[in-house]
């Protein structure tokens, strides 16, 4: 496992820190339990208006379209719970994967104050 | 032919000048042109970087008129750096070049060039600039001064190490997906980085980013 963080200009709000920690724990538990991966990387990208947490593995992958979209009544682990945590911070969760091709779970959380500028892809 | 009189604080006697250009025809033309100017004496000429550094050390001219692109071997920026350092700044380097990219200007000035002229300049402007350089005063061709001012007016924030890394992969032709795989990141995060890179470079396409990166020598 590698952790590659980009130091941000300001410390993250505590609520964001604790939710991101839970997201990391949940995503890594998924990697351990389901992926069969030999490598996982956790990357924290701190920008002035958002923070992104990527948990990537080189495991067996999954079909993102088959994932449940809602977080109702789920236990503490699992993608729906992770998605709910990201949503509580006003953020989004994306899951990029294909069968046999590893998985990247990426949480993007906006930071206050939010500048008008949103980077275009 | 008219040109400004030498500055009052210029050294007495003609300005002793060494030419450096890798094109023999250009050297001959400049020698003839400068030889016709009052108060300027061409004391030597060099075709390459190593040669002009040695010549400047031996002749100790007031001014070296320096081309930046010198074919193979040491380029004009490196030669400028050595001459300025070797002479303790007493030999002034006046850059005379075709190119006015930000990267060339910045590198030449950082290396210690006293002035930066374009080859499109009129002869009398060149003569004035030679006298100014001999007195240690800066002359910039108008388009060069314009670029310097524009750059200072809107400085571009530097790229982070990660952004440079991604830009490098972009320049090698990798797709977002390739880059994401290589860095163990999501494509969403790669796209976010690309957005920042585009903003910082003032471009809106991959090709534009690669072109600016090459022009400003942002890539390793």
Automatic annotation (TrEMBL), chain B:
TM region positions: none
4-aspartylphosphate PTM sites in chain numbering: 67
Keywords: DNA-binding, Phosphoprotein, Transcription, Transcription regulation
UniProt-recorded Gene Ontology molecular function terms: DNA binding
UniProt keyword annotation of Calcium present: no
A Pfam cross-reference name: GerE
SMART domains: HTH_LUXR, REC
InterPro entries named among the record's database cross-references: CheY-like_superfamily, NreC/VraR/RcsB-like_REC, Sig_transdc_resp-reg_receiver, Tscrpt_reg_LuxR_C, WalR-like
GO biological process per UniProt: phosphorelay signal transduction system; regulation of DNA-templated transcription
Residue ranges occupied by any HTH luxR-type domain in the UniProt entry: 152-217
Response regulatory domain sequence ranges: 16-134
Protein name: Response regulator transcription factor
Organism of derivation: Streptomyces mexicanus
Lineage: Bacteria, Bacillati, Actinomycetota, Actinomycetes, Kitasatosporales
